[in-house]
Amino acid sequence: MTKMMEIVGMDERPGARGAVLSLVLLLGASPALWAQAGATQVDARTDADTAAAALPPAFEWDPNDPRIGLRSGWMDAESASRGLERVASAARPPGFFNPATPDDRRFFNSDLAFRDDLLFQGNYQGFQVFDISDPAGLEPVAAVLCPGGQGDVSVYGDILVMSAQETRGRIDCGLEGVADSISAERLQGIRVFDISDARNPRQIAAVQACRGSHTHSLVTDPDDPYNLYVYIQGTGAVRDPAELPGCSGAAPEEDPNTSLFRIEVVRIPVAAPERAEVVSMPRIFADPETGALGALWDGGDHGPGTQTTSATNRCHDITAYPAIGLAAGACSGNGILLDISDPTRPERIAEVTDPNFAFWHSATFNNDGTKVVFTDEWGGGTAPRCRASDPLTWGANAIFTYEDGELELAGYYKLPVPQTETENCVAHNGSLIPVPGRDIMVQAWYQGGLSVIDFTDPTNPIEIAFFDRGPLSDELLVTGGFWSTYWYNGHIYGADIQRGVDVFRLVPSEQLSQAEIDAATLVTVDQVNPQHQQRMEWPDAAPVARAYLDQMVRASRILDARADEVDAVLTRADRGQASDAELRQLAARLDADVAAIRAGTFGGDAERMSRLADVLRGLAS
User: Fold this and answer.
1) Do 606 and 552 form a contact (C-beta atoms < 8 A)?
2) CB 412 within 8 A of CB 393
3) I need a labelling partner for 621 at 20 to 30 A (CA). Which of 149, 265, 270, 558 fits?
């Protein structure tokens, strides 16, 4: 059946600034037909990939894992899950995919952002807006055609920021691209949209950058509610100064004003976002003593048997955590920490290297800011890097602890089951799931699916849930799978590069109780962005108390009799039958247990028990 849908584009040519351009696109080809066009696709596997396939396994896995042997397909691939239930899916709308083949880079889905009951899906061709007031029934709101590549999005109130990386991007969002090598019509940087009317977003500003914007980070200042800051992470070739004056791709010794070894900081006045402008270009890789611009990793391997790591002259992602005044940068050859107390002048305060990392890609803090999960995008996201022969420390997460100003490597995590030769797979974007008492995150692995990871013990991270589909093709390596997965107000949302948006809910298992899930859903926020973390806080509520109890029982870290007593009191509290005095008395007995544990009288989990006692006192008040 031929389908018709109205797509909103932006027409900002002279005399039409801010006007809406409506395009009616026809979708006549079925996605199932793409395999017929696949004969023209090129098998992207290299000789090195073929050689790797012949190597012995690099790790052991469960041969009964249901992710093994899934049937391939574009929109009809077989799937497997554990600890998760898929509740909804929404395919890309017309104008945002090529019906002949999924392997068309112009239409890749990219990152997600959230505001209130709206989800914003970035795409190399623009962005889409969905109403998620009912997560099980995604409703399309708008589809904005505005090509430029990458298309990562962030939102803040009525402001949407979108990255533009490719040379085809036009200032006016035109679909025709830019033919000239040097053109005043080209945009490589960030776009700023007014989304006060989510059905009719309007581009109101465009900020150019010398290396484009591969990604960007929103940075808020607790002391400055009047301005929003954006860190531009450009990873492309430096533009010709004839097109953008001031750009220089020269080495620092040849030009101290080189466009390498820096980021751009954009200030967006919240009341006048059309006045967005670059206000600083911090040299975050410089030697603080000598001033040398490139003081970090020079590129190359770390010795025999190690990775070849990219040189540190740009960042891929910078995750800001304003509540603790820090940002974590994944900067090609290094992981770094930045002091962002002054957002316009971020200062590097720590840096690490890792001989197993090829390209430092993204970063996630735990809620306390005492751990940082850095990811390695070995193979650039388009290669199969989760095969049986691939090391578990390459293309993985490296988990660092942060204490006394120092980052220390604690452990690694990678998918515990191999993927096939035709599935691009490596660590990618994710977020924390707010389970009290544990450090849990959900993470995308491209065609490796999504994995829910407990890294509470950073030396022994474990998988507690997953979802995976079969490959897009059994014969061809086609880029696809989850670009990112994020928790937002009770559900997990996944951006699939080729298939659209998926929505999941957690289900209880031996490793995650219903109380822990219920406690996580109590944490609600107004917005979520990929590279901007918010501190999570839990109310004094019965599910939070039960979450701590379940964790101690699971680990055998509470006396059985005390656990039974707590369970009984919480059950009465759920029925409105527990008195305030009863709750306070139980909290006092737990305090006594905590003192005994710390004195070595008997074993137990003093930290969780103390938190449980605090929640009981909160319930009483």
Assistant:
1) no
2) yes
3) 558
- Reference 350, options 307, 394, 395, 409; nearest CA is 409
Q: Is pLDDT above 90 for 228?
A: yes
- CATH of the structural domain 8-35+43-242+258-290+316-528, one choice from 2.130.10.10, 3.10.25.10, 2.40.30.30, 3.40.50.300: 2.130.10.10
Q: Which two tokens stand for residue 51?
A: 């050689």
Of the pLDDT bands very low, low, confident and very high (cuts 50, 70, 90), residue 68 is: very high
Express each pLDDT in 593-609 by its tens digit: 999 999 999 999 999 99
Confidence class for position 52, pLDDT limits 50, 70, 90: low
Helix 580-599 × helix 560-574 angle, to 10°: 160
β strands within 317-369, DSSP E: 317-321, 326-331, 334-339, 347-352, 360-365
* pLDDT tens for each residue of 562-582: 999 999 999 999 999 999 999
Strand order in the sheet with 491-496: 84-90, 500-506, 491-496, 482-488
- Give 360-379 pLDDT, tens digit per residue: 999 999 999 999 999 999 99
Q: Are 259 and 240 in contact (CB under 8 A)?
A: no
Q: Determine the Cα–Cα distance for residues 232 and 147; give it in Å rounded to an integer.
A: 18
- 29: pLDDT confidence band, cut at 50, 70 and 90? very low
Domain segments of the chain: what residues? 8-35+43-242+258-290+316-528, 542-620
Size (the chain), residues? 621
The 126-131 sheet, strands edge to edge: 19-27, 3-11, 139-145, 126-131, 118-123, 109-115, 527-528
Mean pLDDT along residues 382-393: 97
Render pLDDT for 403-429 as a digit per residue (tens, 0 to 9): 999 999 999 999 999 999 999 999 999
Contact 382, 44 (CB under 8 A): yes
Q: Which residues is 5 bridged to in the sheet?
A: 25
CB-based contacts of 232, cutoff 8 Å, min separation 6: 163, 189, 190, 207, 209, 213, 216, 263, 264, 265, 266
Helix (H), strand (E), coil (C) string for 378-390: CCCCCCECCCCCC
Q: What is the pLDDT of residue 11?
A: 37
d(CA 568, CA 549): 12
Taking CA 272 as the corner, what is the angle to CA 267 and CA 275, rounded to the nearest 5 degrees? 50
| Paired tokens of 68 | 């093994």
Does this model's pTM top 0.90?
Answer: yes
pLDDT exceeds 70 at position 33: no
Rounded to an integer, what is the distance from CA 214 to the centroid of its chain?
A: 14
- Classify strands 3-11 and 139-145 as parallel, antiparallel or unpaired: parallel
State the pLDDT at residue 101. 87
Query: Do residues 165 and 233 lie in contact, with contact meaning Cβ atoms separated by under 8 Å?
Result: no
Coil vs helix vs strand at 403: strand
